[in-house]
Amino acid sequence: MGDDSEWLKLPVDQKCEHKLWKARLNGYEESLKIFQKIRDEKSPEWSKFLGLIKKFVTDSNAVVQLKGLEAALVYVENAHVAGKTTGEVVSGVVSKVFNQPKAKAKELGIEICLMYIEIEKGETVQEELLKGLDNKNPKIIVACIETLRKALSEFGSKIILLKPIIKVLPKLFESRDKGVRDEAKLIAVEIYRWIRDVLRPPLQNINSVQLKELEEEWVKLPTSAPKPTRFLRSQQELQAKLEQQQSAGGDAEGGGDDGDEVPQIDAYELLEAVEILSKLPKDFYDKIEAKKWQERKEALEAVEVLVKNPKLEAGDYADLVKALKKVVGKDTNVMLVALAAKCLTGLAVGLRKKFGQYAGHVVPTILEKFKEKKPQVVQALQEAIDAIFLTTTLQNISEDVLAVMDNKNPTIKQQTSLFIARSFRHCTASTLPKSLLKPFCAGLLKHINDSAPEVRDAAFEALGTALKVVGEKAVNPFLVDVDKLKLDRIKECSEKVELVHGKKAGLAAEKKEFKPVPGRTASSGAAGDKDTKDISVPKPGPLKKAPATKAGGPPKKGKPSAPGGAGSTGNKSKKGLETKEIVEPELSIEVCEEKASAVLPATCIQLLDSSNWKERLACMEEFQKAVELMDRTEMPCQALVRMLAKKPGWKETNFQVMQMKLHIVALIAQKGNFSKTSAQIVLDGLVDKIGDVKCGNNAKEAMTAIAEACMLPWTAEQAMSMAFSQKNPKNQSETLNWLSNAIKEFGFSGLNVKAFISNVKTALAATNPAVRTSAITLLGVMYLYVGPSLRMFFEDEKPALLSQIDAEFEKMQGQSPPAPTRGISKHSTSGTDEGEDGDEPDDGGNDVVDLLPRTEISDKITSELVSKIGDKNWKIRKEGLDEVAGIINEAKFIQPNIGELPTALKGRLNDSNKILVQQTLTILQQLAVAMGPNIKQHVKNLGIPIITVLGDSKNNVRAAALATVNAWAEQTGMKEWLEGEDLSEELKRENPFLRQELLGWLAEKLPTLRSTPTDLILCVPHLYSCLEDRNGDVRKKAQDALPFFMMHLGYEKMAKATGKLKPTSKDQVLAMLEKAKANMPAKPAAPAKATSKPMGGSAPAKFQPASAPVEDSVSSTVELKPDPKKAKALGVSSKAKSAQGKKVPSKTSLKEDEDKSGPIFIVVPNGKEQRIKDEKGLKVLKWNFTTPRDEYIEQLKTQMSSCVAKWLQDEMFHSDFQHHNKALAVMVDHLESEKEGVIGCLDLILKWLTLRFFDTNTSVLMKALEYLKLLFTLLSEEEYHLTENEASSFIPYLILKVGEPKDVIRKDVRAILNRMCLVYPASKMFPFIMEGTKSKNSKQRAECLEELGCLVESYGMNVCQPTPGKALKEIAIHIGDRDNTVRNAALNTIVTVYNVHGDQVFKLIGTLSEKDMSMLEERIKRSAKRPSAAPIKQIEEKPQRTQSISSNANMLRKGPAEDMSSKLKIMYRTYRIQARSMSGHPEAAQMVRREFQLDLDEIENDNGTVQCEMPELVQHKLDDIFEPVLIPEPKIRAVSPHFDDMHSNTASTINFIISQVASGDINTSIQALTQIDEVLRQEDKAEAMSGHIDQFLIATFMQLRLIYNTHMADEKLEKDEIIKLYSCIIGNMISLFQIESLAREASTGVLKDLMHGLITLMLDSRIEDLEEGQQVIRSVNLLVVKVLEKSDQTNILSALLVLLQDSLLATASSPKFSELVMKCLWRMVRLLPDTINSINLDRILLDIHIFMKVFPKEKLKQCKSEFPIRTLKTLLHTLCKLKGPKILDHLTMIDNKNESELEAHLCRMMKHSMDQSGSKSDKETEKGASRIDEKSSKAKVNDFLAEIFKKIGSKENTKEGLAELYEYKKKYSDADIEPFLKNSSQFFQSYVERGLRVIEMEREGKGRIPSSTGISSQVEVTCVPAPTSTVSSIANTNGEEVGPSVYLERLKILRQRCGLDNTKQEDRPPLTSLLSKPAVPTVASSTDMLHSKLSQLRESREQHQHSDLDSNQSHSSGNMTTSSSSTANIDDLKKRLERIKSSRK
Length: 2041
Fold this sequence. Notes:
- By secondary structure, the chain is mostly helical.
- The chain has 102 helices and no strands.
- The longest helix is centred in the N-terminal third of the chain and has 30 residues, at about 105-130.
């Protein structure tokens, strides 16, 4: 036992730690004794054991442990330091005691835990126990649950937090261990005892058997509310007192206490929030707009399922709410309306407060939808609006509700009243203040007099509810005019409401309110009036959020405590008094005399009107004495003042008498019950005397006394209106002075600012300076109360006056209004206590502001304005913002309803352009001042986003944001900002700028507040993280703010919140808290506000401080606007700074938009040039690789760093592809706004994009190609040319992508290549693409070959580099490729060349293998296309087209994926391919037209272009030059048509109006049409249109086509608009075609297009579906008839024939179309007998000839219908019948009659009447001969021609050679001499042409006089619209060329076509110059006319810009080669055009 004795000697604490169990046992026993002995809980003994207690409970020896537990229990119970051990001891108990087999140990463990709870450590204990539930040992779990259950049972749900327990319950029910499940059941029953049905929803998903068992147990529970049986130490003393009280029998307080406990837990709080926005179907927003209701229903059902989640995560629901609102408001299907309403209900219930910001948008829509009668819709809407109400306050939606109350629809009125009634139920006396009650009562009073009984009933119910909620006192003043019956009815309703509530109002209500609705709860944290709104009413059973309907209201606030009560009684007496005074009847003079004589001495009354002033004076003295002695109740005030006013009354001449009189009035007013009736008797007199030098003061005193009796507002208004209705300036100025003083004495409450302002304005305009001065003084006093907003009303005054007013205001600045000294007795409440609620002071302030007249601006916030603000282009966004600023400025003060503006402005707060962000902030400041306190409702949706801007990296933006937030807070107070989670969410963002600014702001604002919403606690965790932020500034600001948070939340709460921190952080934060506790300021006391309060308003406190900062910040932000360039230049330095700043929050992911401001590309002067130099000088790597190596990427990064925004560069070189996508998206956004920057960095951008081509991610590639398309469109608009460096480092990599397997990508790359030709010459592109054909990738080879073909086709052979021969040889190699597509592509390319170049191809491609050659020949044969000998035309025409396009490009929108040129080429190619399949000439004939029409469509779809181009052409009467129809009788002259015509006024006006007819804007078009219609309807004016008819018709059918293609397809457009436009067009046309002289001016081409348009319109099925569609079609019918009858018969007949031909050719055309054209032809046939003499038969027969040539009889017979052939026969038959044999003389215009069967057909018809002459047989032989000629072999021909050209080339034989060539051409008209001319010089070509012409003139027209060349060019220009030659004139049977002999004939045709007669034909040289041209259409459609004009104009304008297109510079138009002599004339034209251009600039 030796060692025993050793430990026995040790002190107790060492024994406790000994390794021998006996020693420990002994130590614990001794400890226990010591603990029991210590009496003082603060004894130092306790501290010795602090570290040992854990060992007591965790001892490894079971016996020793038991003793240790006993000792520990005693320690915890008695030691004051025990709390410090809670965590370790309880965790020891859980892990080492609860698993012990001994029941005693477990019991002691539980006791220790409960004891810790008793000493206020409940939270820690609960935390440890909950951790224990995760233990694997079921024993421990069971014990933990049991401990929790006992704790709950004993301490109640107030101490034990149920939320965390309920969260783990479902898991416990799933446990495998039965013991755990049983224990879980027991605790569930215990929890149910405390919170009842709130427990149901969280347990919905447990096993049904368990749920059933629970239900059974729950039913057994007693219904009485449970009470805690054990109390915390702090509560125990209270409890003791309570027990004493109870024994005395008072239960009130205790009851109250219990009542508080129920709302502790809210079912909502127990739920997990679900995120649903991301789960919305992808196509939701499209589907919800779908036309089919089923699709819309699907979309809504998807949402309905999602919103069934009882708690939703906060997010941006604006779009979803907007979509649902639209369905509710506009959907015609009521089922969907109900469904959308259900979705809104779900959202509101799931989001609660967070839905509040959307409430304002939705409420009016729902209320207005109550017009629906269907019960299910009404019910759904009711549920929705009730749920929404709970998310907001009545105040916020009051405006919307009041607006709907005036609706005419009785159901809407009824439902609105019912809604108001239900809403009132949720209110308390404090949340339903008078200011709110007043407008509602006014509206409801109208309803109780409504004709509809249901509206009356609903209004009674609402008023009854109001009466119930706020008591009769508050409501009675509003019910003064209601008759007794109705009052009774309201009271009756009020009593019914009580039944719903179930209990009387009063203190008890609070306790028992919750009974009727089991489980009604309020959110634990809401303060005062707020908790009522958080209430949701779960039905018993599964939680589906039923909105709180009549089932029960919220707890009503008990009556206010004594002072409040006293105050309200005071109020009552005042009101009562007032009402009594108001109704005092006006007494007659007799009654007054009678009453006065009863109280005044008889002598006094007799002497009143004595003529002796002394007697009158004596009388007054008696009068005064009598009044002084009279009792208030007996004084007949009205009678007395009547006596005083009795003659001489106020006309009293003696000043002493008058002074007495006025003094008596003051006495009566002070001593008696003075009514307004009495006041009105005397006021007039008082105002009249106020300006009197001697009596003025007395008058003022009297008025002040009256003001005290009758309230200042009323008195002042009366006095002002009286003063200003008379002329005396002294009175006016003194009245104003009196009022200034009175306001200071009485305060400002209740004064009508509006009324005064108008009087003050009158005073300011007065001529008398004294009046003006007084007015300004009065304004100064008003300024004290109203604040800076007062100035807004006087901004229109003259500057001098305004400066005086400002000076006065400045004097007042900084002063606070004096405390009112008068008028207090009557309204003591507002002076002595805080009203009925702490919020009262606000109301006073609001009153002042509410008096300001507010303008409704919501109608000005149009959708256009909103879309402007959100436009892609920053300039348009800026315009939108400017407009908004203008609207607000103009309105001064505005109503809170501002439509969609908040969402639009919110978007601009994160604008990439910082100048716009600042402008938005300025607007938001304006908005705050303009809207006043009403801006509260926008805090959540607009105010919080302003706080986000505090995180901006730019200092000035942050400053502006801070000024804005302050301006807002000024108006709203802080409560709105601190409520909810929004502020804490902002603080959570890890942005150092945001954190420091926000904390600084809170540190400034919090100390001034008396109370804050409990939500402030939510900011604390983030505040703690700020205390440890990396950024020093953030830490400092957080430390500064700490004491102010503590001031409101208290140290305890703050310390408690550290629980969640890491241990190290926790210690630091706690230390800081201790420090802050020492510095914690006291809350500001109530009197702080009282200075400004007694007059009922704290406005000055609100307004004044704002004035200075607001002004400053506004001016500073304004200054920032003007110079965006400067901002750009500064960009570099600011970037650098931001880059440093950014390191602070080293978040690589750039979570915050840290510094995404400013331009993304920085313009570095000469940066690009320097880079090119570096590359040339080999200072950097040349961009050339097969795959990009790291050094290339690094090099690019370095080069970019100087000119690309840092944040963008990080995105661009990020390793994750999603960042690349982001970067591309940003680049697309900035493309338009930063053109200079993009062009400056273009080489780098292109290089970076080449890197993206090597990425494997398709989405990046697609995005990159999308960007490239936009980029090259932009470059061509800017007329930029790629440098060699840019091209060589980009094009090869782009060509790699043309071989991508994905079709979409290949298509995009081809589109980009197409566009590149506009910024980089095609000839230089060619080698790059050629290189691409050598790739190993067969797809790439094929695509490159295709592209080469397109280049040759578009630009001619000149693009082939280095020479056509070499290029073609390389292409031909691919004919033998092993891949089929490559072979085909190579063949197609060579066929293309063949089509351009003819047989020479075979020379150029050199020798091919036999197989390849045969394939090629086969392909050429199959393409069956005659090589047109006009490569020059190709080269000319294409570049010119592209050129014109690039000039247009800036008008093209970025939308279409391909621009004009590429579309044009693609269409052109497809056309070519079709042409091959259709072999024959008609196609060739149509080719050009097709191409032009295509472009016209482009122009039409792009309204801008139409508007721009047309006026440009038409404005200056260029018609003289271009239009064939208008050419005057030509005389021989070299000068161009006279110049003055161009500026004749009417003509240019008409031109302008006509140009507007084709406008894309419907209204513009309609206006233009009405103007033209006016002209046409007046006969005298109609002539002005002469000469403009074609032009007008062109504009009209362009508009028709625009409607057909664009407007009709546009769903957004109202169809009525289109119908209106149609009727205008048709009306105009009918007017036009009634005037025959004008109708005949329409040319063939135009008529053809017009008829095409009209027939298309008649067939448009979309029109038939419209209401007035039938009417339109009938009008069109009528119009067509008019056109057929009135037009020039030749022109219309010709037009119809061509139209028929086209429609039969076009595969797309409908048979119905052709049928209608034929019907028109039949109608013409019917008219022929009358019109035959006016018809040019030659021309008609030529048209028929061409028709029959295109459609031989066989082909016509193949048509589905026989109509065409019958129509033709009928026409010919009629002509034969009318003309007889003479008809054969009219075939003069047909060159080769054998090409069609026309002549034969006519002859057959003639046969019946006469025999044929022999001439025909001659013709036959001729025909035969020509056939034989044709067959002469090609080889011979070539040799022969070569011989001739040799001769021409030699000096001696030139003439002979030319003669031979002439003969040869005459003989072989089909000979192709083009190849021989092609290789020669331009000079040689024109020499040959000239020579041939001379020979022709000699041989053909011997006696002809050669005329000046000028005219020849004149005629050529004339021919442009009807291009040069016709099919018939140049083609014989095989379509080969005809010799020069036909040119004479051709001229004749041309002249005829141009409307000139052929008589003076000899004066003209034949147009031999037009040597060999391809086939072109016979009738120039108006489109062609338009285009030839366009191309000429554009070409001359842009000649100098495109050097690589010189080949076509020598030609005036792409369609012809003019002889050099005509250039003079063209120069003349150019000069004129230049002049026109410059004059227009």
